[in-house]
């Protein structure tokens, strides 16, 4: 289903739409800017990548997941990899490091859609940084506790 | 369509097993998505379940009120006749009056129901069915389908013989539909407003819709107590269930026979429908609605002129060259060199002066001297203060003595 047609259906009302204070925002996991616009709304495309924070445990590094939208045209009835795959997305956790994750993003977009690419990378960096700060604080707190 | 999309039928007991590998998608699922038709039909059809109600026709009119006319220093509104009570002489009948009847009282013969052209209703239903097969639309409607193996979800007919709710629940869990049910359960809220007292205490979301075919199927009883789940026979598909609120993209679970029946119900693009007399599926206005593909296609790009680069003649906002170095450099390219030379000169001047390394001993000595001086100062001020106080005491004691003497 083409992005243009889906946009016409979805732009007025959808489950991810949040309108507040005159702003039109989106909680779409495939939207890296947070604002609902035609190009940034990833769930209506076939090839978006969303950068999503996860509820990982305290001492784990991988608190960020990459969620890659995949084509739903020819769906595979393959249920082997249950937890990371869904009909419309495949998930990659960032446990192999932020560089691997950024390579995934760059490869998916190539030289096209620089705006979307930058948005995804920006969000990845920010989440990672926030996570690092959080971890640093937690480690300091646990050390203080031990004393 | 050159290639017909294919769909797998899943085994009811095991969501990893597929009983029928590739079934062609019924033609309904290729119907163009027409939210305008659906919205129109939905708003009208939703009115058909309404029950007539009205205001009591005598409400507010059960008085023999008459206007007092002019000349009595009161408004000309009809006033209640009689005496001996507060009510007499009070205004009556008007919609603006206290205890008056409402304006345009509701009548029972209000036109509650709407008829919609059959063709429009059928097109709407077809579009709604098509939308249930489009993943982004189901996501946009808010269904939780991240664990569902396939959209549209087609399951073997075995579920039609489920009698126990446990079977139904386990089935939903196996196919990732339970997340949607959980959403329904967790978002059940007490309704705002008076409807609470009129039998509509809770507002409950819509979960999956299960569509079956065989009339003597028992699954209705199995599924009906699961919150949010609705069950419907494929011959009685209802737009109000397929597109609740006029919003396309309900999460639907089809049984195999129901799925196969859709072609007979709605027809295909080759043959009109068998069961809906003379109904032909809506044809799309554009065979290729993908704007991005059209624009980027060879045929269009060949004809299109190269993109114009906008020539920037000057900045939109004037920058002050005396403050903004880049603006200055644009006007006077030599300014950069001048600035560099100036900074170099300053650096050269300061290079000759050596830093005076203060001797530690010197520091100590100077500090000692300072302390001495400050100590001397302190003593001096102390002495002065003391002297002043002595004088004061003497003075006042002298005064006292003088007063006592007197």
UniProtKB/TrEMBL annotation, chain A:
This is Ribosomal eL28/Mak16 domain-containing protein. It comes from Paramecium octaurelia. Residues 5-129 form the Ribosomal eL28/Mak16 domain. Transmembrane segments: none annotated. Belongs to the eukaryotic ribosomal protein eL28 family. GO terms for biological process: translation. GO terms for molecular function: structural constituent of ribosome. GO terms for cellular component: ribonucleoprotein complex; ribosome. InterPro entries: Ribosomal_eL28, Ribosomal_eL28/Mak16. Keywords: Ribonucleoprotein, Ribosomal protein. The keyword Ribosomal protein applies. The keyword Ribosomal protein applies.
Automatic annotation (TrEMBL), chain B:
Keywords: Ribonucleoprotein, Ribosomal protein. It comes from the Eukaryota. Residues 278-351 form the Large ribosomal subunit protein uL4 C-terminal domain. GO terms for cellular component: ribonucleoprotein complex; ribosome. GO terms for biological process: translation. One of its GO terms (molecular function) is structural constituent of ribosome. Belongs to the universal ribosomal protein uL4 family. This is Large ribosomal subunit protein uL4.
């Amino acid at each position: 289903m083409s992005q243009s047609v889906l946009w016409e259906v979805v732009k007025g009302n959808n489950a991810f739409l949040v309108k507040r204070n005159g702003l039109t925002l989106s909680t779409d996991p495939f939207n890296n800017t947070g604002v609902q616009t035609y190009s940034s709304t990833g769930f209506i495309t076939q090839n978006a990548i969303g950068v999503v924070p996860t509820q990982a445990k305290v001492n784990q590094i991988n608190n960020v997941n990459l969620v890659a939208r995949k084509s739903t045209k020819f769906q595979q009835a393959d249920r082997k990899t249950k937890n990371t795959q869904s009909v419309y997305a495949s998930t990659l956790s960032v446990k192999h490091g932020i560089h691997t994750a950024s390579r995934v993003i760059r490869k998916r977009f190539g030289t096209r859609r620089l705006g979307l690419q930058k948005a995804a990378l920006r969000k990845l960096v920010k989440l990672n940084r926030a996570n690092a700060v959080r971890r640093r604080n937690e480690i300091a707190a646990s050390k203080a506790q031990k004393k | 369509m050159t290639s017909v999309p294919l769909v797998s039928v899943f085994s009811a007991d095991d969501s990893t097993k597929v009983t029928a590998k590739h079934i062609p998608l019924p033609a309904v699922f290729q119907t163009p998505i027409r939210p305008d038709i659906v919205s129109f039909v939905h708003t009208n059809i939703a009115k058909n379940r309404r029950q007539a109600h009205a205001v009591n026709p005598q409400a507010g009119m059960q008085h023999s009120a008459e206007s007092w006319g002019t000349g009595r220093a009161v408004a000309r509104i009809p006033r209640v006749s009689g005496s001996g009570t507060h009510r007499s002489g009070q205004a009556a009948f008007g919609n603006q009056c206290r205890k008056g009847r409402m304006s345009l009282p509701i009548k029972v013969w209000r036109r509650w129901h709407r008829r919609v052209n059959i063709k429009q209703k059928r097109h709407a239903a077809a579009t709604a069915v098509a939308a249930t097969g489009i993943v982004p639309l189901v996501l946009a409607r808010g269904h939780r389908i991240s664990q569902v193996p396939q959209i549209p979800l087609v399951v073997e007919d075995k579920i039609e013989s489920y009698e126990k709710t446990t079977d139904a629940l386990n089935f939903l869990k196996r196919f990732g539909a339970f997340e949607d049910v959980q959403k329904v359960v967790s978002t059940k809220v007490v309704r705002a407003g008076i409807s609470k007292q009129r039998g509509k205490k809770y507002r409950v979301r819509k979960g999956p819709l299960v569509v079956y075919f065989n009339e003597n199927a028992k699954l209705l009883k199995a599924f009906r107590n699961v919150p949010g789940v609705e069950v419907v026979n494929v011959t009685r598909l209802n737009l109000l269930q397929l597109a609740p609120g006029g919003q396309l993209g309900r999460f639907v679970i089809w049984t195999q026979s129901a799925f196969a029946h859709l072609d007979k119900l709605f027809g295909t693009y080759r043959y009109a429908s068998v069961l809906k007399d003379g109904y032909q599926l809506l044809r799309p206005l554009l065979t290729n609605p993908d704007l991005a593909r059209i624009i980027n296609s060879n045929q269009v790009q060949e004809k299109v002129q190269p993109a114009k680069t906008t020539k920037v003649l000057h900045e939109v906002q004037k920058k002050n060259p005396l403050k903004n170095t880049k603006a200055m450099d644009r006007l006077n390219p030599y300014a950069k060199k001048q600035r560099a030379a100036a900074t170099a000169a300053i650096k050269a001047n300061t290079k000759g002066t050596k830093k005076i390394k203060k001797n530690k001993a010197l520091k100590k000595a100077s500090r000692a001297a300072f302390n001495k001086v400050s100590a001397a100062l302190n003593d001096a001020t102390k002495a002065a203060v003391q002297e002043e106080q002595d004088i004061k005491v003497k003075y006042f004691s002298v005064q006292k003595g003088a007063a006592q003497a007197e």
